[in-house]
Amino acid sequence: MGLACAPVPFRIDVIAYGRGAIGVAACPGAGTTTLAQDLAAITAVRPDAIVTLLSAHELKTLGRSDLPDLLPGLAPQWHHVPLRASGAPDARFERLWTYTGHRLRALLRRGGMVLIHCDEGSVRARWAAARLLTELGVPPGEAMAKARLRPLATTPPVTPRRPMADHHVASRILGGLFAGAVGDALGYAVEFKSRAAIRKLYGETGLTQPKGRLVASDETQMTLYTADGLMTALAADGPKRREQILARIRYAYLAWFRTQRDDWTPNATGLSQHRELWAVRAPGSTCLTALHAGARGTIDKPINDSKGSGAVMRVAPLGLVPSIDADEAFRLAHAAAALTHGHPSGRLSAAAFASLLRDLLDEIPMPTALARMEARLEGAAGGEETLTAVRLARGLADADAPPPAALASLGEGWVGEEALAIGLYAVLRAGSLEETIRIAAIHDGDSDTTASIAAQIWGVIHGLDGVPHEWVRQLDVVEPVCDVAGRMLAHTAETAITAPVRRLTPAWV
Q1: Are residues 154 and 191 in the same domain?
Q2: Where residue 456 sits, what CATH number does that domain have?
């Protein structure tokens, strides 16, 4: 795959897939036709998504640095996923493809049109088309033939690098991660502001009509490090014991703690290689103090008496792994929360949240999932306060209580049980992700935590398709979210292949 030089007329070759189609083309405005003509040709095929495989440097070389501003207006989705001109795709492409590939496959399954463009010759675009077809179940040889991709010595394999997770399960996992990140970012924009000030700034709907970059906070950062620790533990050889998993999660939290006090270094590895995660975004004092002391708290030996929302805000990934069932997710999140938070309500709100997500991942109806969560809280020592808050949220939603009055009753979300209750009320009261986030964020308290919790629940129920792509594209943490999401989906696929009912070892007690 290489960057061709001889300009040719712009042309879109169409590859059929069921009721859908993949168009492959060269770079608009870089051939013998005008940019206006090329954009008109793109508009004529009415793409549902446009994928740019050229890097920013290549676009500049071709004199088309303007395309990132022009192409998003021609389709509901625009994806920029640079694919290098020769050799196998690099790690960054594979990370971004976790999200982009899923979006594109979903569109094609629904009969949509996906347009992929690169340089003259469209070799990379044809390779990406063949990769998509293979991921959709077309045999590799047939996929290459349909894409008219000539197999050369330098052509990388079109088969996926990792096993593919079930599409619907993957959608719910991705939905939880990305909805949570955008909920956090939208809430972070108004954290520490009063409800009156938020409404004055944004009006009724302005909060969920963002312009410019969406900046995620410590909520998303710590959520990603939770996932990092969990995936590192589950990827290790041998039995998966609770102590080993907790140790990896603790190490991950300490790695995050370093990002909050040190300067980024290009030698950083793992999740910390992503510079955007080194930004200091209002981290909670309880977490910082506990991590400074080594984060050695346990359920039996509390590290403090805090029930702040810094535990519930970060544990979602523990409920997004099919190989860990809901009861196990409850116990694991309880212990992981205890690393930094000593009060039962700080720990058990986190445990309840993770177990709820795990049941929802299995498509258990919300009323049943809530009843199961409440039963776990009833059986947990010290669970009364969290259980009362959850039941109050359900009662207010069932009574159709308006958000201002309901939120005044539920609190401000600075402590774990209040944050969980506000998130639940928002999901139960709203009819869309946008409304869910507005309800969960527009109040006088911890807006980013409550909006993130609510959005994670909504995302797991409805999947990635319900998360606006434009929001995801504006996130400042897309790549690190893709990083952990790719590992989670790979683990999901691998455990489904090797042992559909694989669980943690009996030592999990």
Answers
A1: no
A2: 1.10.4080.10
Query: What is the mean pLDDT for each group of 10 consecutive residues in the chain (509 residues)?
Result: 62 97 96 95 98 97 96 98 92 97 98 95 92 96 94 77 90 99 96 85 76 94 99 86 94 98 91 96 95 97 98 99 97 99 99 99 98 99 99 97 94 98 98 96 95 99 97 97 98 77 37
Could you tell me if 369 and 394 lie in one domain?
Answer: yes
How many whole angstroms separate alpha carbon 501 and alpha carbon 509? 18
Tell me the C-alpha distance between 194 and 14, whole Å.
53
> Dihedral (C-alpha) 258, 261, 265, 269: value to the nearest 10 degrees?
10
Strands of the sheet containing 77-80, edge to edge, are: 13-17, 20-25, 113-117, 49-52, 77-80
Pair 97, 173 in one domain: no
pLDDT confidence of residue 1: 54
pLDDT at 434: 96
- What domain range is 61 assigned to? 12-162
> What local confidence, expressed as pLDDT, does residue 160 receive?
80
DSSP state for residue 151 in the 8-state scheme: -
Listed residues 147, 162, 177: the one ending a domain: 162
236 falls within a domain: yes
CA distance 40 to 31: 14
- 207 with 282, same domain: the answer is yes
Domain contains 297:
yes
| Residue 242: closest CA among 349, 331, 341, 340 | 331
Q: Which residues are registered as beta bridge partners of 13? A: 24
Q: Tokens 């608009």 appear where?
A: 28
Token pair in block for residue 405: 């009055």
Same domain for 177 and 97: no
Smallest Cα–Cα separation from 397: which of 450, 436, 360? 436
- Are residues 352 and 488 both part of a single domain? yes
Among 127, 162, 197, give the residue marking a domain's end.
162
Q: If you search the block for the tokens 């792509």, which residue do you land on?
A: 469
- The shares of helix, strand and coil residues in the chain, as percent rounded to the nearest 5, are 60, 5, 35
Task: Let me know whether 356 and 384 are in one domain.
Answer: yes
Residues 34-41: contacts with CB under 8 Å, at least 24 apart: 35/64, 37/10, 38/10, 39/70, 39/74, 41/10, 41/11, 41/12
Tokens matching residue 442: 């527009």
> Rounded to an integer, what distance in angstroms lies between the CA atom of residue 447 and that of residue 349?
17
Judge if 194 and 277 occupy the same domain: yes
Question: For the chain, what is the largest distance between any 2 Cα atoms, rounded to a whole number of angstroms?
Answer: 73
Contact between residue 450 and residue 180 where contact means Cβ atoms under 8 Å apart: no
The CATH number for 133's domain is 3.90.190.10
Q: Is residue 501 part of a domain?
A: no
The set of residues, in sequence order, having a beta carbon less than 8 Å from that of 363 and lying 6+ positions away, is 172
* Alpha carbons 388 and 377: distance in angstroms, whole number: 10
Nearest to 302 by CA among 246, 340, 345: 340
User: How many structural domains are present in the chain?
Assistant: 2
End-to-end CA distance of the chain: 52
The answer to whether residue 270 is domain-embedded is: yes
Q: Kindly give the interhelix angle for 218-235 and 167-188, rounded to the nearest 10 degrees.
A: 150
